[in-house]
Amino acid sequence: MARSWTFPALVGLREAGQMAEPVVIDPTDFDAVGVLTEAIVSLRAHVLISEVDASATVSAPEGWHPLVINAKQGGSSVLIVRFNELSSSRLRNVAEALSKRGWHLDEDREGATLRQPPGTTATDSAFEVLSAIGIGGAPTDSRTVVARDGNGNEVDLHP
Question: Which residues make beta-bridge pairs with 143?
Answer without folding.
Answer: 25
